[in-house]
Amino acid sequence: MAKKLSKKQIIDKLRIDKEYYGEFGRQWLSNSNIQNLQPSTFKQFGKVEPDNENFVKGRYFHQLLLEPELAKDFPIWSATETRGKAYKEFLEEKGLNFVLKESEALLIENMAKEIVSRNEQLTELITNKEALREEPYIGEIFGHQFKCKCDLVSQGIVVDLKTTSAKTIEEFVWLGKNKYFYDTQAFIYQTLTGKSMTFVAIDKARKEYGNTGEFYHEIYVCPTSEETILQGKQKVERAVQMYENYHGKDKKEDIRNVIYNLNF
Fold first, then answer.
1. Within a domain: residue 263?
2. Considering the domain boundaries, does residue 50 fall inside one?
3. Is-contact 133 68, C-beta < 8 A?
4. Backbone region of residue 134 per phi and psi (left: phi > 0; alpha: psi in -120 to 50; beta: other values)
5. What is the domain range of residue 192?
6. Is residue 90 part of a domain?
7. Residues of 228-246 as b/e, b for ≥16 C-beta within 10 angstroms?
8. Distance between CA atoms of 90 and 73, rounded to whole angstroms?
9. For residue range 3-35, what is the model confidence (pLDDT) as tens digits?
10. pLDDT tens digits, one per residue of 129-177
11. Does a structural domain hold residue 67?
């Protein structure tokens, strides 16, 4: 299907979330696939995850900053502060798995406002009218076609927006490199775009300035280092090998024959 389209036509189609995350977009590998091509997860490759709380909260945060016209119509549950019978009936009626409560939506709105108000340079980066938002890219990595969708391409760099529960910037960096595959994301995005990448994260927890009664959310700005890119490259290469062995067109092994052996 993709071979019949020009690169521009493919990119235009991938700008549509339904196409990017649907059957059309699944012709390309992505960073989310890398997470399911690890020694302990490769049998889950190709599994489509249903919408959940973290996805919904992250999507609302991103829309507030990058696509405010969509955020205006974001479904918010305001009838009660609990998720009881009426809430469940609402989900069933709308065909949804999770909806933000009004209080949760307000917290995310405050986070979005804070991230573009505390630092002039960061504000200009995110609000730049010339920036590309939710922009897809495609290209070849280790002999396979990959895709990515950049939150923001602004002032010559790729910016990825995160919310985090990390308590310090050091913890955020450690989790990104060792648990959440931000290093592989950085390698893939940098390779496909040809631009350096910076993660901008905001802590979900509110903190107080001393005993002033004034609260804030910690903000982390983390450009990626050569070391991080190299680590991500190595992990992507290993994941691609796993893909070729168990899922590629010329796969060498049957995942149904795989069992785990471990000495206690």
1. no
2. no
3. no
4. left
5. 2-43+120-257
6. no
7. bbebbbebbeebbebbbbb
8. 16
9. 589 999 999 999 999 999 999 999 999 999 999
10. 999 999 999 999 999 999 999 999 999 999 999 999 999 999 999 999 9
11. no
